[in-house]
Amino acid sequence: MTTQQQEGEKRYDPKDTTLKFVTRQDDITLDDDPDSLRAEMSCGHAVTPQSLTAWCRSLLDQGQYKFKCPALKDGTLVKCCEVWAYSEVRRLAVLTADEMQYFEKKMATLAATEYCEYKQCPGCNTYVERADLSNLNVHCSVCTADKGHIYEFCWQCLKQWKGPGPRSDRCDNDACTNKELQLLMNCPTTSLPQVEGVTTCPSIRACPTCGQMVEHDTTGCKNIFCTRCNVEFCFVCLKLTPECLDTSEYYIACSAGVAPRQTSIPTWDRS
C-alpha cells in the first residue's frame, strides 16, 4: 500500500540519530508504505507519527490516560500492552504545540478522576468533589455563596437537586436514572472465540474493584486489566484473576460459569 504524503503531514527527520528506524510495517495500522518512515518504540513495535498520534488520542477520548501499545506480540494473538511514557509518545508522535496542550490537559483531568470523585456543577461549571460516594445529593459551595442560599445538585443527572436527601438511587428530577447501570442490565451479549465454552456473555461489565465500565475486545484470554484501577479480573465470572485461576485457566470456561448481568455498580474503596 502506498500513499502520497500531503504537504504539512508529520514525518520523521531521517537524520535524527536518536530514533531507531525500521523498514517493517506499522504495527498499529499494518501499513507498509515504502515511502513512510517508521520508528521503533521502546517495546519494539514500529509506528509512524500519524498512527501513534491517532492511537494515543483515541485512548484519551475513551477516558484512558495511560498509553498502552495495541500491537500483537510476535506469533501470538496477545496484545503487547506495554505502557509508553508520555515523553516517548510526545517525541515519536511529533506532537504539535496544540496537540501537546490537548494531551496534557486531558491527561491531567483523567488522572485526577482516578483518585477523586468530582464532576462539574451544573450551576457554575466548577468541579466539585463528592465526599460521600453513597450520596447523590452534592453541595456546591460556590453556587451557595453566589446565590445566597444552599445549592445542591444531583451527581447522577447533573441537574439541580429535587426532593429529599441524602439518597443513593436518584433525585426527583424526571429521567434521573443510572445510565451506566441501565447499560449493564441491557447491553447485548457477546462471545469470546478464543475461550473454550464462552459463547454468551454480557458485552459490558463493571470492574469488580472500582466500578469502571469495561468491554472485552473478544480477542485473547478471558481476563482483562481495568484501565482505572489497574486490577486484572475475569470478564466471564467477575472474580479477580488469581481467584478465577485457582479453579480454571485463561482460555477455558470458568468453573463458576458466566456471572449474570450486574445489578449494582461496585464503589471503589481506595483505603
UniProtKB/TrEMBL annotation:
SUPFAM superfamilies: RING/U-box. Keywords: Metal-binding, Repeat, Transferase, Ubl conjugation pathway, Zinc, Zinc-finger. The keyword Metal-binding applies. Residues 22-258 form the RING-type domain. The keyword Translocase does not apply. One of its GO terms (molecular function) is zinc ion binding. This is Ankyrin repeat and IBR domain-containing protein 1 isoform X1. It comes from Salmo salar (Atlantic salmon).
